Amino acid sequence: MYRDGNKTLHWRQMGRGCFLLIAWFLSRFYERPIYTVFQYLLLAVEHNDSGYLMAASAVLVLVNTIKALLLYEGWLFFADGLANYLNKPLIKRLLPLFAIPACYQMVAIFDFPGIPHFGMPAVLSIASVMLIQYFTRDVSRWSNKAMALGLMLFSFQWLDVVPALTSYGFGWGELSAVLKNIAVISGKAKVLNVMAMVSFGGVFAGALVTIELFVNYEKRLAQLQRLRRQERELSALREEQLRNRSVIEIQQLVHDLKRPLTVIIGLTDVLSHSLGNPAEKAHLKEIQDASVNMNKMVSEILNPHVHHRISVEHVVNYTLSQIRPFPWSSGIQVSLHNASSTSFIEANLILLSRAIVNILDNAHRATAENSSPIIRFQTEVTKDHVLIKVEDNGYGFEKEPLPHRSAWGSTGLGLPFVRSVAKEHNGKLSLGTSDELGGASIALLLPLCNTEEVGGEDNPVPRGN
Fold it and tell me: Is the overall model pTM greater than 0.70, yes or no?
């Protein structure tokens, strides 16, 4: 089955072919160029000048070439579209071979004005269609194919005005016969033979060179595209390797932190039973709580699938603490829903906060050149979900970011990372435009967990992919 876009393309090809065929049919009734040929012939007879004879030949050849090109290109387009639409490549080869002679026969049967003669040039032209289809099989642009075919037709049409080839089936049409008879009567047959054959040879050689240039150009273009694609793939692979290496190194570093943290937690627990000073116990309790929190963060970094039950307010506060060292963080307008402190989600705090930090950082970049930057960070709590939303008055999204790249064109952390974190938390990331601020609007929708759920903030809840 073809996709709708391909079907539209095939119908467009067939429509273009029908348009050219209609133009060819109407050209049979347009006789003004023929009058120009007769004028030059009259001047050639009156002045006995071979120059006028050659001018008449050139106009006649050009007119016949244009008309033939409309017919040939029309059937080539129609056959190409029909073959692709029906998925039958043989139609592309055979239909023009039968349809073009049928059109010549049709105008002869119905006695249309300007009846073309289906002689040897037409036969050679049809053969050239087959050759061009073969030689230009790697040429994708239809304009290049049309130019190559036009040169071929132009060269073969010159054979119609060669008096020496009349006995071989060339130039049996009315105008061609008149032109050659005048050349014979006026003694200019040899001149016309030489000039027409030279024109044929030059144009035919030019057609072959043109076809070769088009084919080589298309091959080089395809090779360049292939090299660029390979370079992009290699670059993406190198970047992926660097990211993997960085992740592995971070994982190893965090893993090494587990041992001293375990020692600190154990020692603080021992000291808490031996100290009697209330002030010292209070300080020790702070050290112990900080060590436990660090141990929890290390666990979340080492295992992103481990989630804890935490409040929405805690997620927001922890996220803001991560960007507090940056000067632009003070300009963020934070708006928390009243139920943010009593609404809980199952989340990996490290991953989720990094995702929100990325959103805020993108908003800062988008508004960095704005004289009055506005970044709004708010939460909305419903019965079953919490919506974490960031809006700005920057330039917004020109197009949807690619799934494997960030909105800034890098392959580092960005919206693709945020989208993966949302998926990990059974949430949804949506991108849009802020109706009020006019910039980007990014919303992260996460499900709430029940307050009666087992596993508190200190009890991890493992999750699968």
Answer: no
